[in-house]
């Protein structure tokens, strides 16, 4: 039987800010954009959460809920540096580390470099190391599979450690609501409750035809989870499929030169990401949302590159395939996809001539 950990840093961005600025400690803190500029909460401290402030919430609403909220602009380079330290600690104990984001990961510690027979001592030692080396706390869940480990890590936040041993799986499942199941968001949860399916274990006894009518192809997957079954392995070094950024503007953009400048800046940011990971990208995509919330994307695929001027030029050229400059723009985004590593590039270069003749534009 596998021994799986899910480790989740506590209020990560906000905790880094409070660690680095003593004046923020003990105060309700939200990391994100300004409320008068359509800002969104990227992370909220636990002091802010007591007022109902949550991630992904509009900052204007967060301020209404908590007038004393301290808003801090995000510093992703600093968060990335802390994340690198945390993941280095993870990889000391096992190579089977599956990142989910900067601040959380699954670890399979069935076999581990520390020679621990049980997963709980591993989790405890990891939490201690993280605190010692970063000054931050993490919550951990220990379970026989990924589904249960992730639920367990959120059970006693912050600084929690929840263990679901094989003999505790059934009692644990019995107390969970139906929306604890993966794939069950608020809308699906309402549909299930309308059918009388309130608890996770109710999924087991619901007629399969009723379940399929309610959740479609999710039915079989939810039935397995409701029985505590999740055979997915921890997959180390899951490759990123894309990277980019987008921005929602406090005032709609109408000037084409301004729009082009914003797109160039985002393209250069994406190239920085490629350079840090020694990757090249074949596809550049832009996203444009107009003032009426209509959203379009445009993509261009050509030779692999991480040249900033080339990626920026391709992104700007794609603007010509939109109504930017004639319709007010609310949001812009630029991303890169279809990656090649340096080794891949060298081998491909030996096989194929790179030519713009094979490029294509997708609408």
What does this structure look like?
- The protein is α+β, with helices and mostly antiparallel strands and 363 residues long.
- It has helices at 12-20, 46-49, 59-65, 76-93, 119-134, 146-153, 169-174, 186-194, 202-205, 208-215, 219-226, 256-276, 308-319, 342-351, and strands at residues 4-9, 29-32, 41-44, 70-72, 97-101, 104-108, 138-143, 161-163, 242-253, 279-290, 295-305, 329-341, 360-362.
- The protein has three domains: 1-165, 2-Layer Sandwich (Alpha-Beta Plaits); 176-226, Orthogonal Bundle (DNA polymerase, domain 1); 242-362, Dna Ligase, domain 1.
- The chain contains 14 helices and 13 strands.
- It has a five-stranded mixed sheet with strand order 5-6-1-7-8. The protein has a five-stranded antiparallel sheet with strand order 9-12-10-11-13. Strands 3-2-4 form a three-stranded mixed sheet.
- A hairpin with a 4-residue loop joins β10 and β11 (295-305).
- α4 runs antiparallel to α5 and α12 runs antiparallel to α13 (308-319).
- The protein is globular.
Defining traits:
single chain, 363 residues, alpha+beta, Alpha-Beta Plaits, DNA polymerase, domain 1, Dna Ligase, domain 1, 3 domains, five-stranded mixed beta sheet, five-stranded antiparallel beta sheet, 39% helix, globular
Give a brief rundown of this model:
This protein is of the alpha+beta class and 363 residues long. It has helices at 12-20, 46-49, 59-65, 76-93, 119-134, 146-153, 169-174, 186-194, 202-205, 208-215, 219-226, 256-276, 308-319, 342-351, and strands spanning 4-9, 29-32, 41-44, 70-72, 97-101, 104-108, 138-143, 161-163, 242-253, 279-290, 295-305, 329-341, 360-362.
């Amino acid at each position: 039987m596998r021994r799986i950990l899910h480790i989740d840093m506590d209020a990560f961005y906000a905790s880094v800010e409070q660690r680095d600025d003593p004046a923020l400690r003990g105060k309700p803190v939200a990391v994100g954009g300004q409320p008068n500029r359509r800002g969104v909460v990227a992370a909220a401290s636990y002091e802010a959460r007591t007022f109902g402030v949550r991630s992904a919430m509009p900052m204007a609403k967060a301020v209404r809920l908590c007038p004393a909220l301290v808003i801090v602009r995000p510093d992703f380079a600093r968060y990335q540096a802390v994340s690198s330290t945390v993941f280095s600690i993870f990889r000391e104990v096992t190579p089977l580390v599956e990142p989910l984001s900067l601040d959380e990961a699954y670890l399979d510690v069935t076999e581990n470099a520390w020679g621990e027979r049980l997963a709980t001592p591993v989790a405890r030692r990891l939490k201690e190391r993280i605190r010692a080396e970063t000054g931050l706390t993490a919550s951990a869940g220990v379970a026989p599979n990924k589904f249960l480990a992730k639920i367990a890590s959120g059970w006693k936040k912050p600084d929690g450690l929840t263990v679901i041993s094989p003999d505790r799986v059934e009692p644990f499942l019995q107390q969970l609501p139906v929306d604890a199941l993966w794939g069950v968001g608020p809308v699906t949860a309402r549909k299930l409750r309308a059918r009388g399916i309130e608890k996770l274990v109710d999924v087991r006894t619901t007629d399969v035809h009723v379940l399929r009518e309610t959740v479609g192809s999710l039915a079989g997957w939810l039935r397995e989870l409701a029985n505590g079954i999740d055979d997915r392995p921890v997959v180390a070094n899951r490759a990123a499929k894309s990277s980019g950024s987008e921005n929602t503007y406090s005032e709609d953009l109408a000037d084409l030169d301004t729009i082009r400048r914003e797109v160039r800046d985002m393209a250069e940011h994406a190239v920085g990401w490629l350079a840090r990971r020694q990757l090249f990208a074949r596809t550049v995509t832009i996203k444009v949302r107009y003032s009426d919330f209509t959203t379009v994307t445009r993509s261009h695929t050509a030779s692999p590159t991480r040249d900033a001027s080339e990626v920026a030029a391709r992104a700007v050229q794609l603007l010509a395939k939109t109504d930017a400059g004639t319709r007010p723009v609310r949001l812009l985004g630029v991303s890169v996809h279809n990656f090649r590593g340096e080794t891949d590039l060298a081998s491909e270069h030996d096989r194929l001539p790179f030519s713009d003749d094979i490029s294509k534009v997708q609408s």
